[in-house]
Design a protein that fits this description.
This protein is α+β, with helices and mostly antiparallel strands and 513 residues long. It folds into three domains: 9-143, Copper Amine Oxidase, Chain A, domain 1; 157-252, Immunoglobulin-like; 273-510, Aminopeptidase. The chain has eleven helices and 29 strands. A six-stranded mixed β-sheet has the order 25-24-26-29-27-28, sandwiched between helices. The protein has a five-stranded mixed β-sheet with strand order 18-14-15-23-22. A five-stranded antiparallel β-sheet has the order 16-17-21-20-19, with no helix packed on it. Helix 4 (295-313) links the parallel strand 24 (273-278) and strand 25. Helix 1 (4-28) packs antiparallel against helix 2 (53-59) and helix 8 runs antiparallel to helix 11. The longest helix has 25 residues, at 4-28. It is globular and about 65 Å long. The relative contact order is 0.09. Bound molecules: zinc ion. Zinc ion binds at residues 279-280, 286, 295, 349, 382.
């Protein structure tokens, strides 16, 4: 990941940054620090107790690109991607989000982050650990394995295998005992995953699977082979963290559609379906406000307004998971969206917190790990099953593994889900005129099985007396609905192949993704 020339260029750029900061230093309090890595020393700009993200990333051999409008840095290399921006303490890394102690900040075009950003996020990405010596103003960074601190070289990697078919693909999960680098290789009869620099403890030599696309998984040495059921299949492999795993997605290569003879014009029914899910219902009231307002009623009222608002923005048919005060299991809500082949799934809720003063909207997309404690509480509260509902598919012996399998349905759509969550949160911040609570991630079960972009919106805190009053008001409900509809419009506007309402041919098959 680091060539001598790229490292030299990085060091050179870093040196010029430090030069600038040496000149500005007396005015705004910056001071340089040094960074030692693999026997070389690099200057790194510092601002108070924060350090330049770009300098450190380049010293580690990562490629850094900067969006000049937003000041956001995208750091790539070694199969990883990290996005760091000013004003946020949420750091998207690969497919998850890591929370750091305080927000990053931009000073004269340079992005600075607190020490824990480097310790928790950047160094582990380079398989390194680092400590800052405040007296010498020096970061000492060493490789995680075989470090002078005497930690053992990495032992053999143990791998578990699970196979699940989520139409139209089969996903093979290779769950690892630790994060490890791997190289995928597509061969005629399957896809091979070879782990680099690690011995692999195989769970078996070969196991056959009763799956439409995958016949078997074989282990030999440091390589696992996912064997195709038939010739001509295609596959890709990608890493997920929390827990560490490699997912191999096997599918049929997309063929060009056959040329059809002149058909009658299609009926004027939009092909795009959006499923809106009013949280809770029936005996399951959800959260209850201090004035007695029940979450299940607010979610239904807002959902009906959203259902009316979206088709005004995007040519679509909106289906509600419930249009009455009835109880539905979490899995049935997602199943309905999958059955309808929906292009989007929006689950609506109202938040509740024992912390007085908690207010504002929050938009979530799925992750196995929660962004923070509040996110984890929200997920625990929303995941309470309806009495008598069916458990997740698969055996109940290992609920963790069940969840991992089930969340594969959503993992293919995480990027789009996060894009949708961002658009919705941006619009809701305008409506609620509250602080930006930001987009978050948590293991919401209602999102896990969705085979389309899916988000869960906590429209406000029903536990907050003022917000409870707002949530009752038709004006606020209508504003929330139109904010969500606007965001859905933005989402589809930036996605190729979807017609806005004013477009010539409304409706595009959502499955054409
Ligand atoms: Zn809820």
């Amino acid at each position: 990941m680091s060539t001598p020339s790229s490292r030299a260029a990085g060091a050179c750029l870093a040196a010029s940054v430090v030069l600038v900061f040496a000149m500005l230093g007396s005015a705004i309090g910056q001071s340089a620090a040094t960074f030692t890595w693999r026997g070389e020393s690099y200057p790194i700009a510092a601002a108070g107790s924060d350090f330049s993200v770009g300098d450190a990333a380049r010293a580690l051999g990562f490629a850094v690109s900067r969006d000049t409008t937003t000041g956001v840095l995208t750091i790539t290399g070694d199969g990883h991607q990290l996005v760091a921006g000013p004003g946020t303490s949420q750091v998207p890394v690969d497919q998850r989000t890591v929370e750091i102690g305080k927000p990053m900040r931009s000073v004269r075009g340079v992005l600075y982050a607190p020490a824990d950003f480097f310790e928790k996020v950047l160094f582990p990405l380079a398989r390194a650990t680092g400590t800052f010596d405040a007296t010498k103003r020096q970061w000492i960074v060493v490789e995680s394995r075989g470090t002078p601190s005497g930690s053992e070289p990495a032992g053999p990697l143990s791998v578990d295998v699970a196979v699940v078919h989520v139409e139209p693909t089969t996903q093979v999960v290779l769950r690892e005992s630790a994060s490890a680098r791997f190289e995928p290789r597509l061969i005629e009869s399957g896809l091979q995953v070879r782990w680099i620099d690690r011995k692999v403890t195989a769970p078996f030599a070969e196991r056959r699977f009763d799956d439409p696309l995958v016949a078997a998984v074989r282990f030999e040495g440091d390589t696992a082979t996912v064997v195709f059921r038939e010739p001509g299949l295609t596959a890709r492999a990608y890493p997920l963290t929390g827990p560490d795993r490699v997912v191999v997605e096997v599918g049929r290569a997309v063929e060009a559609p056959p040329v059809e003879p002149a058909a009658p014009p299609p009926p004027a029914v939009p092909a795009l379906t959006i499923v809106v899910d009013p949280g809770h219902g029936g005996t399951e009231t959800g959260a209850v406000g201090p004035g007695g307002l029940q979450e299940k009623d607010v979610t239904l009222q807002i959902a009906r307004r959203v259902a009316a608002a979206i088709p005004r923005v995007v040519a679509s048919r909106v289906v509600l998971t419930r249009d009455s005060d009835s109880a539905i299991s979490l899995d049935d809500r997602t199943s309905l969206a999958n059955h309808e082949k929906a292009g989007l799934f929006l689950s609506l809720h109202a938040n509740s917190s024992r912390a007085t003063g908690a207010h504002g909207s929050e938009t979530y997309y799925l992750s196995l790990e929660s962004s923070d404690r509040l996110a984890s509480e929200a997920a625990r509260r929303e995941n309470q099953p309806v009495p008598g509902s069916t458990p997740l598919p698969g055996s109940a012996t290992n609920p963790d593994l069940d969840f991992i399998l089930w969340d594969l349905a959503q993992s293919a759509h995480l990027n789009e889900s996060s894009r949708l969550a961002e658009a919705i949160q941006r619009e809701l911040n305008v409506v609620s005129k509250t602080e930006n609570r930001g987009i978050k991630q948590a293991p919401f079960r209602v999102l896990a099985g969705a085979t389309m972009p899916a988000v869960l919106v906590e429209v406000g805190f029903i536990s907050h007396p003022d917000e409870e009053k707002q949530l009752r008001s038709a004006t606020f409900q209508e504003n929330v609905a139109s904010a969500i509809a606007t965001a859905v419009g933005e989402f589809f506007a930036k996605r190729p192949g979807t017609a806005p309402v004013s477009g010539p041919t409304p409706g595009t098959t959502p499955s054409a993704r």
